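Dissemination and training. As part of the outreach component of the grant, students in the summer workshop were shown how a complex can be specified as a set of sequence lines and then modelled as a single object. The example used during the hands-on session is reproduced here so that future cohorts can follow it. Participants entered these lines:
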Amino acid sequence: MQKLIDLLSGEVSAAFQQAGYDPAYGKVTVSGRPDLGEYQCNGAMPAAKVYHKAPFQIADEAAQALRENPAFLTVEAVKPGFLNLRLSPAFLSDYLNAMTVADHFGLDGETRPKTIVLDYGGPNVAKPLHVGHLRSAIIGESIKRLYRYFGNNVIGDIHMGDWGLQMGLIIAELRERQPDLPYFDDAFSGPYPEKAPFTISELEEIYPTASAKSKVDEDFARKAHEATYLLQTGNPGCTALWKHIMAVSVADLKQNYGKLDVSFDVWYGESDAEPYIAPMLQDLKAQGLLRESDGALVMDVTEEGDAKEMPPCILVKSDGATLYATTDLATLSQREQCFRPDKVLYIVDKRQSLHFEQVFRAARKGGIVRPETELQHIGFGTMNGKDGKPFKTREGGVMRLERLIAEITDFVTEKVRENQIVSADEVDGTAQKIAMAALKYGDLSNLATKDYVFDLDRFAAFEGNTGPYILYTIVRIKSILSRYGKEATRILPPETAEEKDLMLSISRFSDHLQAAYRDSAPNVLCAYIYELSGAVNKFYHETRILTEEDANRQAGYIALISLSRRILETCIALLGFSAPEKM
RNA sequence: GCGCUGGUAGCUCAGUUGGAUAGAGUGACUGACUACGAAUCAGUAGGUCGCAGGUUCGAAUCCUGUCCGGCGUACCA
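and obtained this result:
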């Protein structure tokens, strides 16, 4: 279905052509001056230069040609050369009625759907999720849903950090604590125990301890590097221990992501790329792309015209172990072979942008991905506290994700109880939905690329531009619909300003969705539903729906708010949360 | 040093790819519940868009310079 703005541009372009000008000047945009018009066209001003005429004259000629057009209520040419347009009420309601019955509200998806691998989440095994992981999960989940809504085949891959030095650190620490375990006995030949020699909470304590120790204890650091090497070269004891770490960790991760309503299609990690490393290195070597530097094996990725210095990509460290860039490249090789993606999209902290630029260049140079495979890194900013510094707990430690979620949920639960709208057995479920909306909307409404201030008090306040505001709007609509008790689908031409504004807002659904999709920008979607919710609330305030005496008129109102509700619920689903029945 | 990125109301942020009088929220002040839910709505106050040049009919937006902040800059991830 053609977008309203394109439909209007078509009409105005035809008018420009009819008046003897290039139709390209007939591009219509949403008016920046709602007091003067709903849409505007500025084409007469650039056209004036080409045709050596007064811009107003050109605009006026176009206006004359549009005089009889049924799409417009008014067409006015004003001062320098603006063309101000107001839509005919019947034209607008017709458009909305078409949206009501159209698939995806008339949104045009991809004509040629793509296969996309989405790399997000990126948790480290054996480490608790903290607020830093929140952004990748929330933004990635939303982008995944957005891409799918446009018809693409998206494979969400959690890409766990399960293969680096961190694993060696844990293994080395375990060895110091429990040296008698069979995993450390080279002579051990029987089957290893099925039960892990640790719990998830022990694991979560072991890593930071080991990490801190390696920084002050050289001998321990050496042991950790050695354990990393042993693991990566298939030592049976290390491998068995690693499997325990994985099992315990993954179970915990699934539970945590489940709470966030974030799900992955594949749970691969860096370790899954391991089989691809050796053939990849061999291939790169055969191509003559690798060289030795200070004992390490590196690949140059500088390109003609580089303004900055581009360090080479290190693929094998001087101690023989592989690292981040190696596994990322091997993972690309794996993805290319398993999925043949048209695009690989990474939702990872923006501080890693140099790393990704190196990896992307290396992947292209080494022929690891096809030339047409699109590689993109969407880097997000840091989540800061109110002081503008990276978010910490009041005690100054790293805020665990579980605790953050618990704090918001507790606050919301209190509020839901106070309001006494929902019954006691529904309080928890309702509070969970509201908390999720507050948390996710609070994050997604900011530009992903920028750092943002996470202020629990502000998000929890629920006033103004927040997730709960959106939910409240939906809940209000639901309440009226259930009281009305019938279906209605026929929207009538608007009679009041509030009604027309709401309809205009609805009509712009596709525009905003496409912008959000094009830029992978959930904040665009947030801005849209905030505007739409505002329009709904204003309309709601000015219109008595249930006491309306004209039954036909009333059914029109119901049809209008039903469509509003469907669109709002569709959008919040794309953002990754949902509305309760009451709140 | 080099590179990337940001600087818009007291605070937190938008700004539809160059358009008319720069918008929201929050905080402050003032109104609207014997009306479908007041987690709402209406209004007042608050701005040299970091600074200086330039490009043109027109700049928060594009170019140049400059100041301030954040981040990155080969064997962590």
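The first helix of chain A runs from residue 4 to 18. Students were then asked to discuss how this feature might be tested experimentally.
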